[in-house]
Amino acid sequence: MLAAFIFFTRLPFWRIAHVPADCFKQVVPYWPLTGWLTGGIVALTLWLTGQIFPLSVAWILALTARLLVTGCLHEDGLADFCDGFGGGTTRERTLAIMKDSHIGTFGVIGLIVYFLLMTQMGAMPLHTLCAVAFCADTYSKWCASHLINFLPYARKEEESKAQVTYRRMSAKEALMGTFFGWIPVCLLLPAGWMWLCLCPPLVFFLLCLWMKKRLGGYTGDCCGALFLLCELSFYLCTLAWLWK
After folding, report:
1. Each residue's pLDDT tens digit, 188-238
2. What backbone phi and psi angles, to 5 degrees, belong to 16?
3. In whole angstroms, what is the distance from residue 142 CA to residue 179 CA?
4. β-bridge mates for residue 125, sequence order
5. Whose CB has fewer CB within 10 Å in the chain, the N or C terminal residue?
6. pLDDT at 191
7. How far apart are CA 7 and CA 3, in angstroms?
């Protein structure tokens, strides 16, 4: 659990205790739990700044707070994913582009489109957006976490950016992740909104098929991109539901 908070955030959890390197291979099942922290920071920042600024400004500040807490970990993955899958045509070329630390045209355009769409969520009422922000973070991380159960890792461990490959979840870990991913949705969203939970799994399924076809597996960048795109689908479906 501590390894997950160290890995997925920039907060100084490493000061609490030394974590063996092997623990970082088992952080993915705890990803939804870290969403309670990052999603909570987004919701709290949004609520506090929403008392001072227009909601559109408060929402940007809330998104910025998560970027600072996570160190843009997932956004870096989305940029690399867009570069690799946009510029590569073969498995080897796609993996090579994704490993390159430089950002390319597809990565830049992908981040611009992503953030343009995310900023539009400021059209929701403040109370609603606070609840949706918390739920979208935890639930989408639960969806994305199952990537390690569906696909193998596409690289060798020594070729990984983080120098670690994730282990598949045990039944106990999968159950724990489901608890942390679903509790916010069940408690904070109206019962009539439960259908919105179908959108991220659909995105997950389609992207999994694409990753399997192109790479025959996943990478860490794929995990980050998958989370953000699942989350974006949750937001877009919610906004469409409110504006129908």
Report:
1. 999 888 899 999 999 999 999 999 999 999 999 999 999 999 999 999 999
2. -70, -50
3. 9
4. none
5. C
6. 86
7. 6
